[in-house]
Design a protein that fits this description.
By secondary structure, this protein is α/β, with parallel strands linked by helices. The chain contains nine helices and nine strands. The longest helix has 14 residues. The structure holds NADP nicotinamide-adenine-dinucleotide phosphate (NAP).
């Protein structure tokens, strides 16, 4: 869902996008490529990691680190945007967080990719809102990561997706707070019966 939403919007904005999957000929990715035209292509996770100047990690939380570790060499020196959440569905709904409080998936992704510049963002909204913030009432987007230049690059990319209110929280340890918003986000989704909303930070 996230890969398709981001990939579609980024291709529309003129970027070349390669969708990674477990298999090079994944059926859903093939449909997406067909609809996406010349800017869209598909491959394995390693193919996509090697192709991208910016690499998005939009993986199921439980397996994200395993996949990320497998493409470590391919993303050396690159900007990696971690959109994943460490949700554990093993005990049913609602999911719990597998990593929290003193650690985060964002930090583990950075540890697994020591020579990449990991930026955590977009994980606090549904993918429909990621690519069209107005659909969620123009919420605030939170960004964190250790490399200021990488964050500046991603903030510019977020603006091109339509994000107007963006807050830089600091280094990658700040991913803890954004990932721990997920239980609240899931609670609100149940209350609203809708995924098109977000968090808005207001101050005097
Ligand atoms: N859905 C949203 O709106 C939303 C919003 C914010 C954050 N997120 C987070 O973003 C991430 C992606 O979410 P999603 O909803 O797009 O889908 P998802 O089902 O959580 O993840 C799909 C991706 O995970 C891969 N995957 C699934 N099982 C795997 C396994 N056993 N081994 C290797 N790879 C596996 C899939 O590979 P294949 O292509 O090979 O199947 C695909 O690339 C999650 O961490 C989620 O919490 C989602």
């Amino acid at each position: 869902m996230v890969g398709e939403a981001l990939g579609t919007k980024l291709a529309q904005l003129g970027h070349q996008v390669k969708m990674g999957s477990r298999t090079a000929n994944n059926e859903s990715a093939a449909k997406w490529v067909k609809a996406g035209g010349a800017s869209a292509s598909q491959g394995t996770f390693a193919d996509a990691a090697g192709f991208g100047e910016i690499v998005f990690v939009c993986l199921k939380g439980e397996i994200a680190l395993e996949v990320v570790r497998s493409v470590s060499a391919a993303v050396a020196g690159k900007v990696v945007v971690d959109v994943s959440n460490p949700l554990d569905f093993s005990k049913g709904m609602p999911p719990s967080l597998a990593i929290y409080n003193t650690n985060s998936l964002g930090e583990e992704v950075q540890k697994a990719l020591p020579s990449a510049k990991v930026v955590k963002t977009l994980n606090i909204v549904n993918c429909e809102v990621m690519v069209e913030p107005a659909k969620g009432g123009n919420p605030t987007m939170l960004v964190c990561g250790n490399d200021p230049e990488a964050k500046a690059k991603i903030v510019a990319l977020l603006k091109s997706l339509g994000w107007k209110d963006i807050v830089d929280l600091g280094d990658i340890t700040k991913a803890r707070g954004t990932e721990m918003l997920l239980p609240l986000w899931l609670n609100l989704m149940g209350v609203f019966g809708d995924v098109r909303f977000g968090f808005k930070i207001v101050r005097s």
